[in-house]
């Protein structure tokens, strides 16, 4: 707190006095419940935080003011007093028609942005009639094979007034091209389209594990998208650098933050290597974090994230535009924290997590539904999740002031600590040669697997408690209703795909695919060629097969 | 000391990449003294069945969170029977709704561990239900 040495000594003296008298007496009467208290990620937490815990803390340097460097308090001067976060429920299941209906339903009930989940075959770049797609079509998201599916998916939606986030990575270039062509046919210009493609392949190799080609060519295709997006799509976030999946795979809060920012560093470097100027593309990079149960650890993580990224962008990459320094982020509550046992309790967990995201200054938020340990959510469950956000926004008072916890000794000390530990990881990754190399070496993968196993052992020993699992278990609540995917979705999707293949001009499709292959082989930017393929009704699988041919397929070394 | 001889394959059928559970269970079984082989991700039933036969596995543990279990697990059971791997004990975990459990069990899956199952329960179950093949008790 920039305390002068005399005052600091007095504070420390007072603390020692308190420990010897008041505290000691109290502990003799009532010992503490445990010898050690720690966060969910097992960071040890002290009994009390006071000014003398922040001796070197300089509010002008470390906290600053909202909307100003280093943005610890938020990227906007008024935060939620000016505009609430975007309420963006991730949705997508079954056929494009099913998902289109769900999108209309969510927008009618006050949701303010779309977020599309694609099914596993689409995420892996396989068509719905591929042998490996059997049983998976439309299960974990919506099936999209061709431009026609994309047009159905967004039918009747005001694409100039909403923003659309697409959770798509390995074939992100293909789905972005489909969105652009579908929007163009519906009468929208490219500069009217706002949204995000996730396009974060590094976290796929680290955690989410849906890939097509190996890490280095994946980075190459991302460079093509960055250059194309910078040129063509002023309102589009080409990459959403994602910690969510890293955390869900078992990382600690610090690992989530560190690996995500290290991925971000690799993408900024990729943009620079593609010849772009940092302030041209960095403002269109956005982030995506998980929000778990430990309220303060999460708030500290978000605050540290903003400060660290601002410093990285300004000091490491010499960005000059304040918008390049901004860490804008979407948050999703922690799917992994939901329990199948006593599922209604999940509503409470999600509420706490959503509150932490808001207190941490998120720009947009997805709240999980209570039934997601069983299946994709029902409409009723999604409604409770959306209402949870609305209650926080309009009833809790959390939105009345900027960064309500700024200045809390505990939150500031924890923010400093999360930042310092994340920086140490980032240095380690720099030493390994950067994140692409670290991924090839399996370093983050191993760190996460270790952390996840440690946490599971803490649960087994009941050092960490999950209500309804290792404490307060049973009686089993009434089973809840879950969403069943129509078993005919797969057959109908395959029929439509095969009809499109039959009806299109197959020579035109072939020519477009060949031109894409040549562009890939010559190392030219592939994005315009992908758009041509989409226009010619080439399928997701056919386009991704070109990439498989040019760059080969990734095979993960299995690490346990 | 039959533990050392029991060989278990942990596999991820289908396209989903959620391997946290598979890896945690693989480690726990290894720490409990079993020999564990993890196949890695994105395995077809054919790949898993071949691995089980080639590795002479006593048990196969499957982790699946994609909702494709009703397609992939019965097919694996058929393949194991065809390849004369019928005595291999198969168990599974992941996002599997309760109403699918009895159908999976009648296709030959011995046990389904729902989300939230403790590692101890899985390890004890394997100790009690898996024997080195040919020494069935």
UniProtKB/TrEMBL annotation, chain A:
InterPro entries: Cbl-dep_enz_cat, MeMalonylCoA_mutase_a/b_cat, MMCoA_mutase_a_cat. Keywords: Isomerase. Residues 39-553 form the Methylmalonyl-CoA mutase alpha/beta chain catalytic domain. GO terms for molecular function: cobalamin binding; methylmalonyl-CoA mutase activity. Signal peptide: none annotated. Pfam families: MM_CoA_mutase. It comes from the Bacteria. The keyword S-adenosyl-L-methionine does not apply. PANTHER family: METHYLMALONYL-COA MUTASE, LARGE SUBUNIT, METHYLMALONYL-COA MUTASE, MITOCHONDRIAL-RELATED. This is Methylmalonyl-CoA mutase. It comes from Candidatus Segetimicrobium genomatis.
From TrEMBL, chain B:
Its cofactor is adenosylcob(III)alamin. The keyword Metal-binding applies. Residues 5-133 form the B12-binding domain. InterPro entries: Acid_CoA_mut_C (IPR006159), Cobalamin-bd (IPR006158), Cobalamin-bd_sf (IPR036724). Keywords: Cobalamin, Cobalt, Isomerase, Metal-binding. Gene3D superfamilies: Cobalamin-binding domain. This is Cobalamin B12-binding domain-containing protein. The lineage of its organism: Bacteria, Bacillati, Candidatus Sysuimicrobiota, Candidatus Sysuimicrobiia, Candidatus Sysuimicrobiales.
């Amino acid at each position: 707190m920039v305390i002068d040495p005399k005052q600091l000594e007095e504070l420390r003296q007072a603390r020692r006095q308190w420990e010897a008298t008041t505290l000691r007496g109290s502990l003799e009467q009532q010992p503490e419940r445990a010898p050690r208290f720690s966060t969910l990620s097992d960071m040890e937490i002290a009994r009390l935080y006071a000014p003398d815990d922040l001796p070197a803390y300089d509010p002008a340097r470390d906290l600053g003011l909202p909307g100003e460097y280093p943005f610890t308090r938020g990227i906007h001067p008024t935060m939620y007093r000016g505009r609430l976060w975007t309420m963006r429920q991730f949705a997508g299941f079954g056929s494009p028609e099913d998902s289109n209906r769900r999108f209309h339903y969510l927008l009618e009930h006050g949701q303010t942005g779309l977020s599309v989940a694609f099914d596993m075959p689409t995420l892996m770049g396989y068509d719905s009639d591929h042998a490996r797609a059997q049983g998976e079509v439309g299960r974990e998201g919506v099936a999209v094979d061709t431009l026609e599916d994309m047009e159905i998916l967004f039918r009747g939606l005001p694409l100039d007034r909403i923003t659309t986030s697409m959770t798509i990575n390995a074939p992100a270039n293909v789905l972005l091209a489909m969105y652009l062509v579908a929007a163009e046919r519906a009468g929208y210009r490219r500069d009217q389209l706002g949204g995000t493609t996730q396009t974060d392949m590094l976290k796929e190799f680290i955690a989410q594990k849906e890939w097509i080609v190996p890490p280095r060519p994946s980075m190459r295709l991302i460079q093509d998208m960055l250059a194309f997006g910078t040129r063509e799509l002023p309102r589009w976030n080409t990459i959403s650098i994602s910690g969510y999946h890293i955390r869900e795979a078992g990382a600690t809060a610090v690992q989530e933050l560190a690996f995500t920012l290290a991925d971000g560093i690799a993408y900024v470097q990729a943009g620079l290597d593609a010849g772009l100027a940092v302030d041209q593309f960095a403002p269109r990079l956005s982030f995506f974090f998980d929000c778990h149960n430990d309220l303060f650890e999460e708030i500290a993580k978000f605050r540290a994230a903003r400060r660290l990224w601002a410093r990285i962008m300004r000091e490491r990459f010499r960005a000059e535009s304040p918008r390049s320094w901004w860490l804008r982020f979407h948050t999703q509550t922690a799917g992994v924290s939901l329990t199948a046992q006593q599922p209604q309790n999940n509503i409470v967990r999600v509420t706490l997590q959503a509150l932490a995201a808001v207190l941490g200054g998120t720009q947009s938020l997805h709240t999980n539904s209570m039934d997601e340990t069983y299946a994709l959510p029902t409409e009723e469950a999604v409604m409770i999740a959306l209402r949870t956000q609305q209650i926080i926004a309009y009833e809790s008072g959390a939105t009345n002031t900027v960064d309500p916890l700024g200045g809390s000794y505990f939150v500031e000390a924890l923010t400093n600590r999360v930042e310092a530990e994340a920086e140490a990881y980032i240095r380690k990754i720099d030493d390994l040669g950067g994140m692409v190399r670290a991924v090839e070496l399996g370093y983050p993968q191993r760190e996460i697997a270790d952390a996840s196993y440690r946490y599971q052992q803490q649960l087994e020993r009941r050092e960490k408690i999950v209500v309804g699992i290792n404490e307060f278990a049973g009686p089993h609540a009434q089973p809840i209703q879950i969403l069943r995917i129509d078993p005919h979705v797969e057959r109908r999707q395959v029929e439509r795909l095969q009809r499109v293949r039959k009806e299109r001009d197959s020579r035109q499709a072939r020519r477009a695919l060949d031109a894409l292959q040549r562009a890939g082989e010559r190392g030219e930017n592939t994005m315009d060629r992908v758009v041509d393929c989409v226009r010619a009704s080439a399928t997701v699988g056919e386009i991704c097969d070109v990439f498989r041919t040019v760059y080969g397929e990734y095979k993960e070394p299995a690490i346990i | 000391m039959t533990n050392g001889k029991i060989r278990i394959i942990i596999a991820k059928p289908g396209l989903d990449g959620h391997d946290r559970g598979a890896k945690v269970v693989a480690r726990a079984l290894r720490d409990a003294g079993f020999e564990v082989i993890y196949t890695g991700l994105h395995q077809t039933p054919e790949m898993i069945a071949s691995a089980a036969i080639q590795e002479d596995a006593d048990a196969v543990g499957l982790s699946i969170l994609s909702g494709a279990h009703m397609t992939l697990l019965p097919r694996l059971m058929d393949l194991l029977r065809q390849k004369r791997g019928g005595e291999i004990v198969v168990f599974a975990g992941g996002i599997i709704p309760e109403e699918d459990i009895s159908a999976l069990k009648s296709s030959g899956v011995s046990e389904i561990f729902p989300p939230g199952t403790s590692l101890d329960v899985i390890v004890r179950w394997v100790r009690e239900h898996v024997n080195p093949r040919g020494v069935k008790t």
